[in-house]
Design a protein that fits this description.
The complex is a heterotrimer of chains A (274), B (353) and C (295). By secondary structure, chain A is mostly helical. Helix content of chain A is 75%, strand content 0%. Classes of the chains: A mainly alpha (274), B alpha+beta (353), C mainly alpha (295). Chain A: It is a multi-pass membrane protein.
Chain lengths: 274, 353, 295
């Protein structure tokens, strides 16, 4: 039995309205990034720029040093993804395939610790980074995120679905537990690994509070901090600000368009887990 | 490879799953471990494969003690009940897996995968994934994976139980062919007596963790070591007469006497006499007792006659020519072929004669 | 089989990198804060303190600034959470049973999930601009006076709330859609046969069956909105609004650290915030359980 045509039209109309509101800031950002200073400030606002001006982007990248920020952000995000993936895979393997005293307690503790927001821990971690002499380095921006309780729990759940007989079969085939992990468990769970990687890449790319604390020079800043300083240091020039914001946002939008399904699955399991 | 098993045992918690099993398997033999569920047959197999460590006894492969050698170092092939194929690998990669772990050179790997695939006839499916294969094909791939590293021992855990009836008969024949061609010592676990009888050179019959009888299938049937062996094998199940034996005559609980069913001179206070249905004759010329025919069941060429002898019921397999419907309800002289009559101690189940 | 008590050494080897990282950057700070919160007159440089006691909590609770922060945070949360949940549930129930154009809707509705709140906050700052911002233009088209969203203390909270709801909606919709899709279609079919309208179906089937999910999402949004802080950076250059109208609890903690260097108070305030959220979470769980028992 299908919905009546009227119902469906009303539903679509409502969804289109909602989509438009959610999407509008992105569209507005992209359009404004091509505008001239006069077009930015006209009343009533002008929707489309008269011509496609790339000058705002050029300004952001060169004068605003967003080229440097972009590179830093990429290095930090890539390192965080690779390292946290490695530590999470190893830990999840132990939690899913080995039985050892205290495992249940360890899992319960991990869930409890995950509930404490990072914002609360920022101070002590800042102190740690100061002690280690890592202030204003990329390493400082990477280190706290080389392990992730969330990724570990997601992967543990995924690994648990690997049948136990496969481990026995692999032993008969001569595989050590190390070989079993890399040749069977990891390739079998590629979708979960992608999900976890994408989630940590997004979190790292958009991190704000932590890099704000541990960086203080242009050379080590990431995009979000660069953007924040762009406005505090250079005054408000919205056309340039919109171009700079686009530089920060567009890469993740591309990731989203490519991996929409994995991201949606990942976020919903993340929500259900907490 | 010659395998010696000495006083092998395994307990889980306090419950013994296998206890005091000793046996020797000769090189190239095809052995079945047969028994009801929970008899310890799979535990036995897992101990041979090194998947489970024994808690007592030793296992020797060609005279070398391998009791403590883990599965990955035993060089055995194993076919799992559910096949346990790697779902993310193609058929070729599945078969190649043990060779890749062993770091066998690439060219040799390819040749051996090809050979193993040809042996089990899965050549055309090498690029498929397990999910795209039928149960029988998955089974063949699992066998190829087990054989590709030229194991000295091939172990199979109820490999035919997940197949449908027709495919099972076909795979029985296939398994025999593959085993003969690969010339590998093979141990096969099953709860299906027909499977064990038709496939194996010798069968280990297990019950409650003990090895009851280890012999070729015909001997197991003709010459059971224990009442359990006599009852587990054969269809219909062996007839059982309980009573006291006095100089070869059996007295049932209700006083009915069966004369000379056991050899003269044999006296047992509490005995169970096992009689195979095909050794019962109705209208015998050398009757041991009189029995009442209660029903006849025609099964194709043969007839099963339900017979009441005193307080016992017997099933007799007779030829169509010997009987007709008019016998139902009448009393007939009943006889036994001495070869199919076994006397067991009612207490221990041990065979007396 | 592969698993036994003796696999401890090998399991530890696999767990080690994870345990080390988590110990340094998660466990240690939590333990440290738990201790420092109870240490009186803690000196961040010398790490000395006079005695264990509750003076940090006392000072925080007596501090009028903290009271202000708590009020603002509570107000923000009390508005953002219900608004987000109602809008989210409405949109999700439309999206859950539509196949046509779904990828487009998903893209549009979930895009903010992956975008930096600082970067998109800059766009909102432009939209909120008093002189040539888009929002005031829209108000003027329906005959309303322009509002100084970012510089008038009365309008700061609404500005932050709109941005907050916009940011929280995608996650909320996503979880609701996932939950809605696990509700059997047969309930809706049956209700339609019984002549229930779309609105009746929403209130008589969707809302009751979604009870536990609504509770869960409420808690998650609560946890998130009680930490409101980093949104202040793009919109208000990191200031707590005009006339401290957006001075929140996390801002208070941030200030105790960055301006006062008072780790003890910051830790105490953190624990109070965490405790408040925990109490509300547990309350929600208890309510859920009694509700389930009754039905």
């Amino acid at each position: 039995m299908r919905e009546s045509a009227l119902n469906r039209i009303v539903s679509h109309a409502a969804l289109i309205a909602a989509s438009a509101i959610m999407l509008f800031p992105f569209i507005w950002m992209l359009l404004s990034a091509f505008k001239s200073p006069t077009e930015i400030a006209t009343v009533p606002p002008q929707l489309l720029p008269a011509e496609l001006r790339f000058g705002n982007f050029a300004f952001a990248l060169e004068t605003g040093r967003f080229d440097q920020y972009f590179l830093n952000t990429f290095i930090v995000a890539a390192s965080v993804v690779l390292l946290s993936l490695l530590t999470s895979v190893l830990a999840a393997y132990a939690l899913a395939f080995f039985d050892f005293a205290g495992k249940t307690a360890l899992l319960a503790l991990a869930v409890a610790f995950m509930m404490v927001p990072f914002e609360v821990l920022v101070v002590v971690n800042y102190d740690t980074v100061v002690q280690w002499g890592l202030v204003d380095t990329l390493v400082a921006q990477i280190l706290p995120f080389t392990t992730s309780i969330l990724s570990t729990l997601i992967l543990t759940n995924a690994f648990r679905k690997v049948p136990a007989t496969l481990r026995v079969a692999s032993r008969i085939d001569g595989a050590s537990s190390w070989a079993f992990l890399w040749r069977v468990v990891v390739p079998m769970n590629r979708p979960s690994l992608v999900t976890v990687s994408v989630l940590s890449a997004i979190a790292s790319w958009n991190a704000f509070l932590w890099p704000l604390l541990v960086t203080n020079t242009t050379e080590k800043r990431t995009l979000t901090i660069g953007l924040y300083n762009f406005i505090t240091e250079g005054g408000v020039r919205y056309e340039r600000l919109m171009a700079a914001s686009a530089v920060v946002i567009v890469p993740m939008v591309i990731v989203f368009l490519l991996l929409r399904r994995q991201i949606i699955n990942g976020v919903s399991t993340q929500g259900m887990k907490q | 490879m010659r395998i010696e098993i000495r006083e092998l045992g395994r307990t889980f918690g306090s419950a013994p799953a296998v206890e005091g099993v000793s046996a020797t398997i000769e090189d190239g033999e095809f052995i079945c471990i047969l028994g009801p569920s929970g008899c310890g047959k799979t535990t036995m197999l897992n101990m041979l494969g090194g998947i489970i460590a024994p808690t007592a006894g030793t296992i020797l492969f060609d005279g070398v003690d391998v009791t403590k050698v883990p599965a990955e170092k035993r060089g055995v092939g194993f076919v799992f009940q559910n096949y346990a194929l790697y779902p993310h690998l193609t058929v070729a990669k599945n078969i190649e897996f043990p060779l890749a772990i062993e770091r066998v050179p690439r060219a040799e790997r390819r040749r051996r995968v090809r050979e193993a695939a040809d042996l089990v006839q899965v050549g055309p499916y090498l690029d498929r994934r397990p999910a795209e294969l039928s149960g029988g094909q998955q089974q063949r791939v699992a066998i190829a994976r087990a054989l590709v590293k030229n194991p000295s021992l091939l172990l199979l855990d109820e490999p035919l139980s997940n197949l449908d009836a027709r495919l099972r008969l076909e795979m029985r024949v296939e398994l025999q062919r593959i085993q003969r061609e690969a010339k590998v010592t093979t141990v096969f676990v099953t709860h299906d007596q027909d499977e064990a009888m038709s496939i194996s050179d010798r069968t280990m019959l297990m019950n409650r963790g003990r090895l009851v009888h280890f012999a070729d299938p015909q001997e197991l049937y003709d010459d059971p070591a224990e009442l359990f062996a006599a009852t587990f094998l054969g269809n219909p199940p062996i007839n059982q007469l309980r009573g006291r034996i006095d100089d070869g005559d059996l007295t049932l609980a209700d006083g009915t006497i069966v004369q000379g069913i056991a050899p003269a001179g044999l006296t047992v206070d509490a005995a169970i006499v096992g009689v195979r249905s095909e050794t019962v004759t109705l209208a015998s010329t050398a009757p041991r007792a009189r029995a009442r025919v209660e029903d006849l069941q025609y099964v194709g060429r043969d007839v099963y006659a339900d017979v009441r002898l005193g307080d016992a019921r017997l099933s007799a397999l007779v030829s169509r020519r010997e009987v007709d419907r008019s016998l139902v309800g009448t009393e007939v002289p009943i006889g036994f072929d001495a070869d199919g009559v076994h006397v067991f101690d009612a207490e221990s189940g041990r065979r007396i004669r | 089989m592969t698993a036994n008590r003796r696999s401890w050494p090998r399991a530890t080897a696999y767990l080690l990198p994870f345990l080390v990282g988590t110990a340094i950057f998660t466990v240690y700070p939590i333990v440290y804060l738990l201790i420092v919160a109870f240490q009186e007159d803690y000196n961040i440089l010398t790490r000395e303190f006079s005695q264990f006691g509750l003076s940090n909590f006392e000072a925080v609770l007596r501090d009028p600034d903290f009271g202000n922060a708590a009020r603002n945070t509570a107000l923000y949360t009390v508005i953002v959470v219900p608004v987000t949940i109602s809008l989210g549930l409405a949109i999700a129930s439309l999206l859950a049973r539509i196949r046509f154009l779904r990828p487009f809707y998903q893209t549009a509705l979930f895009l903010p999930l992956v975008t930096s709140s600082v970067a998109i906050g800059m766009v909102w700052k432009y939209i909120y601009n008093a002189d040539y911002g888009l929002l005031n233009f829209l108000l003027s088209t329906i005959g309303l006076d322009p509002v100084n969203w970012l510089n008038d203390p009365r309008w700061n909270m609404p500005a932050l709330v709109i941005f907050g709801v916009w940011s929280a909606l995608p996650f909320t919709i996503l979880i609701f859609v996932a939950a809605l899709q696990s509700i059997g279609e047969q309930y809706y079919t049956a209700a339609r046969i019984d002549g229930a309208t779309v609105v009746q179906r929403f209130f008589r089937i969707t809302v009751p069956l979604m009870g536990s999910t609504i509770g869960l999402v409420a808690v998650l949004n609560l946890i998130d909105s009680s930490k409101v802080f980093s949104e202040l950076f793009p919109l208000f250059n990191g200031s707590p609004g005009a006339g401290f109208s957006l001075y929140t609890v996390v801002y208070y903690i941030y200030e105790q650290l960055s301006a006062e260097w008072d780790l003890g108070r910051a830790a105490a305030a953190s624990l109070l915030l965490f405790a408040a959220v925990l109490v509300l979470t547990l309350l929600q769980a208890v309510l859920q359980r009694t509700r389930r028992r009754r039905s």
